[in-house]
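Ticket #657: bound-state structure for WT7.
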Amino acid sequence: MTPDNIQSLQHEQRLFSPPAAKRAHIPDMATYEEHYRRADQDPEGYWADRAKELLSWSKPWDKVMDCDFNIPKINWFVNGQLNVSYNCLDRHVENGLGDKTAIIWQGEPEEDVRHISYRELLTDVVRFANILKKLGVGRGDRVALYMPMVPELAVAMLACTRIGATHSIVFAGFSAASLMNRIQDCEAKVLVTADAVLRAGKKIPLKGNVDDALAECPTVTSCVVLKRAGIDINMVEGRDLWWHDVVADPNIAPTCPCEPMDSEDLLFILYTSGSTGKPKGVMHSTGGYLTYAAHSTQLVFNLHDDDIHFCTADIGWITGHTYIVYGPLALGVTSVMFEGVPSYPDPSRFWHLVEKFRITSFYTAPTAIRALMRDGAEWTSKNDLSSLRVLGSVGEPINPEAWMWYHENIGKSKLPVVDTWWQTETGGILISALPFATPLKPGSATRPLPGVHARIVDAEGNPTAANEGGHLIIERPWPGMLRGVFGDPERFKQQYFDRFPGKYEAGDGARQDEDGYFWIMGRLDDVINVSGHRLGTAEIESALVSHPAVAEAAVVGMPHEIKGQAIYAYVTLRADADESDELIKALRNHVRKEIGPLASPEVIQFTVGLPKTRSGKIMRRVLRKITTGSTALEDFGDTSTLADPSVIQDLIAGRHT
Ligand code: WT7
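RESOLUTION: The complex was predicted; output attached.
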């Protein structure tokens, strides 16, 4: 083993057989292996079949793929043409599904519910597409969307795709400065926004941020504002227009042709912050992205025509793009869109919605599961969850303990939990169990989807032995992958293709066990080096979370005279547990017993909250700063993506020196 590799100390042994299903797209491992082999040996044939089965193309492609990671050059379905709005709406209406519900929208207030049919959604999209055109938006122009989780967001996205404009969604929790940077970078012509966001019973103003941002964004000539909360806002004459006014214009044509787009035309840009540097504008294309979105949604959630799919992410993240809007709508299934939060008005909100809408597949993040775990399992038994078939997780490694809690309390010990590994850059899920085929190991994303060549390599790019940690790379192109970093081809190459020439570098540490299962060990930037042993964060955190008193944990390295680095652990307790010195000792022993003395934390600090990004990921970068004694907010680098900056002060106050 080269010293650069990450060491694994975890030994999770539980194994669960997948339940049998009457209608599974991939019913068993033999079928999975068959798909995998086909995609491996005949990738062009496999992806051509998938693209034809899942989508309608207005012009067939000349060549399935033309890719070379050494350049890098990535082209899928070369010269093929299609339109995303047509694929997500028109063709379903033409096929007699006009009355079927496309989106069930649950607003933050319980009584705000809409069942929007494919026909209604199409009507709204056509109208808004014509409005965008009237505002001067055409093929290739960028439109920025800064909106709450309301149906109008999906309408605006699909309207862009209809006329060949590129959308760039900025999560509504971002600040004026973040919005400004993203609009400036992509030079958007139009911004669509709302007066405010409704969140946990409060109205959080948006339009003020918009005014601040747009003061420095000369490319934006119009701003369409949806009235969501009904608060007083400032409307700028000549620039700002109310959504309800523009859609009421009697001169808007009732039809709008779908622009035939080249498969490689830019569908959307989505900025991802990463831990350093300015946000990268991740570019996704039309044909490859939509194929991969439909493909992965269908297989991972085992979706059929009558399914009701609920992905709890915000559409401001890639998870919402792919698994609320594009994947489900391309398949013609019903997608649930939820404006609220899991804990308001009480921690049974998700489960109440499962019962109310008879949801069949449910997809959320470990951060939500751990928060609900902390509130106690009693909140999970108040509702009828019998409609559920598949549970999913995404965003961070799911600790085996959280996986078990999800499986037992929500899945009633019957449902498969699919832990899905992917990134903004990958467009869709790359590594995941298939719910009715893959034997499950809590905490493992299991195996790559057909057509995905994931490997673990050491610092020199050589394959690692079983259970040896290393760099997660993808060896071959897949249709849903990013096509570039907007305006920065050099960064695209350097970030993903330079370190391991000819391969895509994910930036995550991982190991593959003796069964070929993948275990993600955390971002490589977060690795801790204890006495020359490189330890990933995920295993140590999972060991802490497996103690009955712990709800959530984050570990970082702290400088240590002898060991080089020692482990500093931030621990949030479950609602029914109390802080004490005995508990600190017990937790140290627990980690020692679970994974070994090397991983036993030097310091344990109890905290009521952890610094998280607005998408729920723990920001270990900020914790490292706190650990080493920083107290000034300026020291923490870019904290604009931090969900609740006030936790920093609490953490500093509780720091152990
Ligand atoms: C990073 C990508 C994918 C959509 C949401 C996040 C981490 C994501 C898992 C998982 C372990 C995971 C990785 C990855 N991650 N899913 N199932 N197990 N880690 O998208 O913001 O681009 O983040 O999230 O570190 O690189 P993103």
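RESOLUTION NOTES: Residues 272, 317-319, 394-397, 419-424, 445, 506-508, 520, 523, 615 surround WT7 (CB under 6 Å).
TICKET STATUS: resolved
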